[in-house]
Amino acid sequence: MKRSHKLLEAICRPVALSFILVAVGLGCARTKLLEIITKPSQATIYVDGEEKGLSPSSIRFNFTSNEEQRVLLQLVKDGYQPVFQYYEFVEVPHERKSWTLDSD
Q1: What is the pTM of this model?
Q2: Helix intervals (H) in 1-104
């Protein structure tokens, strides 16, 4: 009985480790940090519909390992036309980006 237990353990352990590595690999997220500046300032920043704060602010964009995933950035301020911008991971600008909001 003890010998079969060791054999079963020797087989199951690598298989279980493989499943864990695959699960971790599939769930890996990538992030990019972007400083958002608007003129005028104090625009509300949304990423995928979730409020992230007021400009100017540094915002973290979270991406899964899905290469085709896009995130939606929205900049909203009363009296100004909202800005809508979709980004894929490779499209997120480096470090900072400025927008001038157009009045209504």
Answers
A1: 0.69
A2: 2-26
